[in-house]
Specification:
heterodimer; A: 115 residues; mainly alpha; Helix Hairpins; 0% strand; B: 503 residues; two-stranded antiparallel sheet; 75% helix; globular
Chain lengths: 115, 503
């Protein structure tokens, strides 16, 4: 049971983010929800590469074989964080512009589109 | 020959960089640079198509940075890739020529071109890459560029549509990333061909369930990107809000590269499809086809109507691919190509009418056949093509899909496809009657005349494509190109072995 705990945490985080995106009416809260989804996935990716008592994957001088963590997911997470940053920044910029146009962050009042 | 593959990413990416760096200093610079890049990429994709049959295994590969396959990233070009490349680059070229005059209305044209080139980079990258995480990165590049292009006008509707698109698009990307993470945890590799080979060697009782779960996640993720019906709600807002050339890029090629191509490549060539997954695809295709066209029937906004038809036509493509018979795949892929051409043509004509009249409401158009003859002619060809009137290209692909349905004993699907085709025809009869040939409610101003020639030329090119693309089905040309494309999907996971021989 104990070994699955981090993965369950990931799932809980993902669901919290999804809840915020689906239920909340405020633009900023939706953006935060998407951020939480991103972070839960990043955590999941890092956990995949984790090995118990593994060390950083750098070749040591004395050449002793030791269990290391998988470095590839960490590289992937770095990329995913950068992408998440770009998306969040764009979303915040659009939210600010929306606030200028409508004077509110409430999505129930931002509905000129229909059909 | 292998060395021109990375140019599909390098050229547009450096053009995006140069545009954002130098575009502000000179007015014509970004026009000229972007058009040259589009011409070059189109030219290179033609070169690839004509040389692909001569290569070993019909595949070109390129090692990025010289690293051998499972370690490094590999770029792969096979016939399916070539089909997507030529479609994307021809449509991009037409939209780029069109933008020269059309985008004069907006400020900061160079920013527009930088984002346009970034979107082209992302799409070309998704198509040629042979690495699943690389595919995700390119997909996000194209998606982020398209989010900001939808909001380019900065009016309140455009911002709202862009935000909607952003939220749904990011959730979809998150689901795609989740499925990539799960796949990596199972096979410990990211190379597409290597994933397929490793999966084949794993012996585990739960493997079948795992592959089904991943396939479902991918169908949801890429389904949002390609606007299949339960996930379609962003498309009718986002596509009409963008500037017209971007609408035609989004509807014409973006939903196909980001959605359909990636989904089909991973499902058919990497994971290997099962009957149940195919059945889901067929059902999704049928629902999208029907719901899309019903929603399109009562639209009066020209661009919004076209956007709903995109949903409906994507349904045709997914239906054809989901049948998974050789004829069905042929129909689906040919319809993919045709739909790119005629939907971009129709969006360009909508841009032309909006450019002259300042409205997209069909009830306030009319009597344009005298004042804008060439635009009307293009709209006529596009409408007949999308509603499946012979001898235009849309007729042949729809015919193939319906015949494939009957051959696979899916009589209901065949019937529904025919009915949807009639509904499409009636919807476009409305467009032609109210928009172009019928009597206008109020007299147009005298300033309404034919649009500038740089907007006419791309429409004429695409109209000619609509008329002559049916010729691709002639047996001699078909066995040279389209049959090979079908083989790529039909052979399924043999793709991996063939790619790995050349790594």
């Amino acid at each position: 049971m104990n070994q699955y705990l981090p993965y369950i945490l990931c799932l809980v985080l993902f669901l919290i983010g999804l809840y915020a995106v689906l239920v909340k009416k405020n633009l900023i809260k939706i953006i935060i929800g998407l951020g939480i989804i991103d972070y839960s996935l990043n955590l999941f990716l890092v956990l995949i590469g984790y090995k118990k008592q593994g060390i950083f994957p750098i070749l040591s001088k004395n050449g002793q074989a030791q269990p290391i963590v998988d470095p590839l997911p960490q590289a992937l997470v770095l990329t995913a964080i950068v992408i998440g940053l770009a998306v969040t920044m764009l979303m915040v910029a659009i939210a600010i512009r929306l606030y200028e146009k409508y004077g509110t962050f409430d999505i129930t009042q931002i509905r000129k589109l229909k059909g | 020959m292998n060395n021109i593959i990375p140019l599909f990413v390098i050229l547009p990416l450096s053009a995006a960089f140069l545009n954002s760096l130098l575009g502000r200093f000179s007015k014509g610079f970004s026009d000229i640079l972007s058009n040259i890049v589009c011409i070059l990429t189109t030219f290179f994709s033609l070169i690839i198509i004509f040389n692909l049959n001569l290569s070993s295994n019909n595949i070109f590969t390129y090692r990025v940075g010289g690293w051998v396959a499972p370690v490094g990233i590999m770029l792969v070009v096979d016939h399916l890739t070539a089909l997507m490349l030529i479609t994307v680059n021809i449509v991009a070229l037409c939209c780029c020529i069109y933008s020269i005059s059309y985008m004069e209305r907006y400020t900061d044209k160079w920013k527009y071109y930088a984002l346009f080139m970034l979107m082209l980079t992302g799409m070309n990258g998704v198509i040629i890459t042979g690495d699943i995480f690389n595919m995700y990165v390119f997909l996000e590049i194209a998606a982020i560029a398209s989010y900001s292009l939808v909001a380019f006008g900065c009016e309140s509707e455009e911002l709202e549509a862009s935000f909607k698109y952003l939220v749904l698009g990011s959730v979809a990307s998150a689901i795609i990333l989740l499925s990539i993470a799960l796949l990596y945890s199972y096979v410990s590799t990211l190379n597409l061909a290597d994933i397929s080979l490793t999966l084949a060697n794993i012996v585990n009782v739960n493997k079948g369930y795992f592959i089904k779960f991943i396939s479902l996640l991918l169908i949801v993720g890429f389904g949002v990107k390609s606007a299949l019906v339960p996930f379609h709600s962003w498309l009718p807002d986002a596509h009409p809000s963008a500037p017209a050339p971007i609408s035609s890029m989004l509807s014409g090629v973006l939903i196909k590269t980001l959605g359909i191509y990636s989904m089909v490549r991973i499902l058919f060539n990497i994971l290997g499809v099962e009957q149940k997954i195919l059945y889901i695809l067929v059902v999704l295709g049928l629902i999208s086809m029907f719901v899309g066209v019903i929603l399109a029937l009562y639209q009066w906004d020209y661009k919004r109507l076209l956007a709903y038809h995109s949903i409906s036509q994507v349904g045709y493509i997914i239906l054809g691919l989901g049948l998974s018979t050789p004829l069905g795949i042929l129909g689906g892929l040919f319809h993919l190509m045709n739909h790119s051409v005629f939907k971009s043509l129709l969006f360009l004509t909508s841009g032309a009418t909006e450019y002259m009249l300042g409205t997209r409401d069909l009830r306030r158009m009319g009597e344009l056949n005298k004042k804008m003859p060439l635009t009307t002619f293009s709209a006529l060809i596009g409408s007949m093509s999308i509603s499946g009137v012979p001898p235009f290209n849309g007729f042949w692909s729809k015919l193939i899909i319906i015949v494939a349905c009957i051959e696979a004993k899916q009589y209901f699907a065949g019937l529904l496809a025919t009915v949807v085709s009639f509904l499409t025809l009636s919807s476009f009869t409305k467009v032609l009657k109210y928009g172009f040939y019928g009597k206008a409610e109020a007299n147009h101003k005298d300033t309404v005349k034919e649009v500038p020639s740089s907007m006419i030329v791309p429409m004429i090119i695409l109209s000619l494509c609509c008329i002559f693309m049916g010729l691709l089905l002639l047996p001699d040309i078909k066995q040279y190109f389209l049959d090979n494309v079908v083989n790529v999907l039909k052979q399924g996971t043999i793709y991996a072995t063939k790619v790995f021989e050349l790594r």
